[in-house]
Amino acid sequence: MRIGVGIFLVTVGAIIAFAVRDTSGPIDFTVVGVVIMLAGLAGMWLSYRVANRNHLEHDDTAIIKPRVEEQYSTEPHAYPLDHEIDVTPTEYKDHPSERR
Questions:
Q1: Which carries the bigger pLDDT value, residue 11 or residue 94?
Q2: Does a structural domain hold residue 73?
Q3: Residue 18: strand, helix, or coil
Q4: How many whole angstroms from its chain centre is CA 66?
Q5: What is the per-residue pLDDT across 58-98, written as a single tens digit (0 to 9) for each?
Q6: Are 2 and 21 in contact (CB under 8 A)?
Q7: For 17, phi and psi rounded to 5 degrees?
Q8: How far is C-alpha 18 from the geometric centre of its chain's CA atoms?
Q9: What transmembrane ranges does the database entry give (predicted)?
Q10: DSSP track, 22-69
Q11: Who's near 13: CB < 8 A, 6+ residues apart?
């Protein structure tokens, strides 16, 4: 049931519960209207819960893959590097064509 159907059921139930005043038969229209309104409210609530299931179950914490987190970690490595890292900007490096 979608939210629109739930709103429709609440509206129809309110009309039956509060506008129809037929007391001659064995059916109490006030009770029928209230039951239809409750069914519409339950349908709207269930529709909202199903539509927002993923949003409601997860918190807003960022999830980073372990490999990516390791790549950008600022902690020193537990193992020494076997080579030095060259941090010289490329415009200051010797180009292979200029070496002789």
A1: 11
A2: no
A3: helix
A4: 23
A5: 566 667 777 777 777 677 666 666 777 778 888 887 766 65
A6: no
A7: -70, -40
A8: 38
A9: 29-48
A10: --SSS--HHHHHHHHHHHHHHHHHHHHHHHTHHHHHS-S-----HHHH
A11: 32, 33, 34, 35, 36, 37, 38, 39, 40
Q: Is 30 exposed, middle or buried (0-12, 13-18, 19+ CB in 10 A)?
A: middle
Tokens at 17, concatenated: 């519960």
Q: Show the domain range for 48.
A: 3-57
Distance between CA 93 and CA 100 in Å, rounded?
Answer: 14
Q: How many angstroms separate the CA atoms of 12 and 40, rounded?
A: 9
- 33 assigned to some structural domain: yes
Residues shown for the chain? 100
Does 75 reside within a domain? no
Tokens of 85: 């890292």
